[in-house]
């Protein structure tokens, strides 16, 4: 890719790179605007009263107390206020246009919407989905504004645009563009680049349509649910981040890189549980939302105070991400959204107070020139390297090299991961202007055409002379040949005339194309001038508003001066009038103190309610731990727990073993093969067969007796007495068994052996039916 020529000299004495005034870091306050929504259909049906009045000329928002008088009204002055009849385009022109122009110049910009739930923050930032173009919010209009600026910029400037979308749900950062939008992302600190989200997805975009597609994808993944005050209540804070990198040729002939970053923040609304009716998971979400908004309020208070040496940015993920936007290197606009109904008086008062305090925050924006982490620089170096390789390979001349470097058709989207650096694709704007042949080529074409005509004429003359020389041919043949030659000459003349017409038309088209190119350049220049005049007009309007405020202040001072009079009576009257005014101010101050005390009491009650809920949850978890987790494990876990200030959470350190001082194995119980507790020993002694109380790894089981195969004899009367006696005798003890039994019962030495009895039994038992051995006595 050949180096682009240097740009023309800028108009109005402005530098092509940066204005001397812009390059310096000057302090500027946060711009705060207030927008009130119209009454909803529900509020109209309930007969609610409008308590908010907007004075758009003076930039004053007037809040009336429900049922009170004009003396009870409170007024707040802001940079701009917008009534319910203001259009989305007017909001964009007065709030976001200047920030976007600054981002295109290399500044950081932030626009965030703040207010209670149901006040219209999401409508202001993104507008209704699939709604008409006139209802589009700041985000879609910002996309169009950025790419319109790119299309009307000089061809010597190259741009790279990428977008990211995240949300903070229950103090967890989620990537709305990733494949797993419910996954948790980590927040990291970079000493050079500040706070960033690790592994956050980024998409290179090349048109407004692609940016809209990213927005719709993120909105579909965002946490939204219904409450009593809002059917589509956002349950998380969302941040849409746009990074615009540009490389322009400076007066020194070198490329200068600028990086502008735009953060579009849609905050979740503050809620009161009594009005939203949130329970369960919705109540937990509301608690986290209110805590993060309280942390944001504490940061604003610390920045406005000026005496605080510590700014509590680390109290919340939200304040850490907005650290540059509040008191840092960013141009910031705060859009405070309020509701007009009387039952939202307390919430509207709180929003106006926060917004009024935010006016005093001072930032120090500066242009981000030649940053080290610019992706466009890496891609320029990569393109030059590839071009050098192509030229070294041979066969690629300068013209062919320019053709080879034409960008390929753009992809729909590309996702990259933030690891150490983001490698992206350079987005170039290419304007194709068709051009005709050069004057040298036209002259060569004319000479070639004249030569061809001369050759045709000479051939025709030679043919004519040849025909006239042949006198022997018939007259008719001669005439035919002459007519044919005339036709050929006429055709050649017509072809010459056609070529001349084409040449004239070509020159005319070239002249028109040159004029078209000049007209296009004039249109671009006029559009730049128009935008410049619009910016001047907005600045003049802002200046007029400041002058009106100064005029009102001067008028008050003049009234005080006119009160000076010569006579004592007039002096008394003037002093009485002044006293009355001071008394009215005193009464208002007294009422303001009462309102502040009431507001602080409500805030205290809300905080106490959240503390009670958190204490209840803490006690429940402590009870579960005490009931199911051993105390030793709890103590070990507490000893290993370490607070991570960066991630704002506790972490459990891994267990480390001391190889040198290892714990000794306890000795065995006396007489037992292994260590045994007293409890196990007692249970084993008492006969408990549970294996956990055993001393050895031996399983004791009962004997497995075989199955019995015999039965006891039962008397059968039907067999007869004789058979019965025979069976009884057969089943009785054998003689040998009797002898063995008697031998086992031998008396000890020294004792006399008793003779067995002889003779017939005395019990009258019948004699045995079997023969008896000789010499033996009958068995009893």
UniProtKB/TrEMBL annotation:
Q: What is this protein's record name?
A: Kinesin-like protein
Family stated for the protein in its record: Belongs to the TRAFAC class myosin-kinesin ATPase superfamily. Kinesin family.
**Bias category Pro residues: which stretches?**
1-10
Tell me, what is one Gene Ontology molecular-function annotation carried by this entry? microtubule motor activity
Q: Where is this region: Disordered?
A: 1-26, 530-550, 732-780
Task: Detail which positions bind ATP.
Answer: 115-122
Q: Name one GO biological process term.
A: microtubule-based movement
- Where composition is biased (Basic and acidic residues), the residues are 539-550, 739-751
The family database entries (Pfam families) matched by this protein are listed as: Kinesin
Ranges of Low complexity composition bias in the record: 15-26
What SUPFAM superfamilies does this protein map onto?
A: P-loop containing nucleoside triphosphate hydrolases (SSF52540)
Q: GO cellular component terms?
A: microtubule
**Domain Kinesin motor per the UniProt entry, residue ranges:** 29-361
The alphabetical list of record keywords is: ATP-binding, Coiled coil, Cytoplasm, Cytoskeleton, Microtubule, Motor protein, Nucleotide-binding
Primary location group: cytoplasm
Q: Where in the cell is it found?
A: Cytoplasm, Cytoskeleton
